[in-house]
Structure formats: C-alpha cells, structure tokens
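pasting for the record
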Amino acid sequence: MANNGKLIGNNALIAGPSNPVGLATAKLLAAEGCHLHLADLDNHVLETCIAEISELYRIDVEAHLTDLSEPVNAAVLALECQHINILINTLGAPTKGGINKLEHEDWKTSFELTLFAAINLTREILESFYEQGGGIVINAGGVMNEDDDENLCIVSVNAALQAFSESLDKKTKLDGIRVLSFLPQANISAEGNAASLNFLILEKLLS
C-alpha cells in the first residue's frame, strides 16, 4: 500500500501498541510514511503489530520488548530511540472502579503504568529532542465509560497526565518541542480516536 507521505522522514516511538488506540495510531503513522519503534511488555503483541504493518507499508518497524513501569527501562529505550522526533505514550489503562472498590495496589498500578511511565519516558526522550531542535510528545490517558462511579481512578490519572503535559509544554514549546495530552473518547472506535490523535500530530508538526 502506498504511503500518503506527510510524515516521510519522521520517526516515531509508540509505547504501548497493546492499547488498541496505540496500534491504530501506528498504522496511520505508517500510512503517512513514518518509520516506527514499538515498545511493549507483550512480545506476541509486538510480533503481530510488526507483521500487520510491514505487510501494508514500506517502512522500517523495530520492536522493543520492555517493561516501562521500571524507570531504568525507560532510560534504555530512550537511548535506543535517540533519532525519533515523535513519542506517543499509550501505556496501560487505569483501573475502573469507585472509591469503595479499588484497593491500594489498583491505584498504585494505574498510576505507575499510565502516568509515571509516561513521565519517565518523556523526561528521558527530551534530551534528544532538544538536540534535534524539536519534536512532539503525546501522552494518552484512559477511556472513561458511561458509569461515573467506575471512572474515579481514570479521572484522577487523566487529570494528572493532563496537568503534567500542559505544564511541561509551556516550557518546551519555546524550543520547538510540544508535550500534549490526548484523552480517547469512549463512544468512538480505536480507529476514530487514532485519527484524532494523528490529526493532532500532523497539525503540530506541519504547522
């Protein structure tokens, strides 16, 4: 399949292609000619993603099997992907449940996988972005369902992720680096959310 070409010459790291939005975004970036790095803890997911993308698009795709809940692994991954100029964090998914349903470990795991891992990887990758003179980071939050009682942890993680991204973006955008948050919508398919995310990337990179 031919590439549309809007992102030819760009290189992206997608952390968490096991997230349907992450995989759908990877395919859209590939269609635009963007070379990809995919990082995940699930090797089967990585192999499947690479097979699907390589069959459709003539781009380079590299897999990184890693647990990004460990900060040292984020540092290693950043070194392996120094040449990227797009970072998309679609790591984990906050646990659904209200205050009386979730235990300490539920909260801890949700923040570690969705928030802290994104913060660590963003921090580690910024050095190479500064050296390149630009780049874009998009930190994707969790999807909220229609039951408000089930969204407390998701809302909390998303709010923290948004605050982190917005606060950092005020500083980095002066150097041509954008740090943005993206909250997938529950009533839209993974492909639909990925299309919105892809539009955001194109808007910021090509403007």
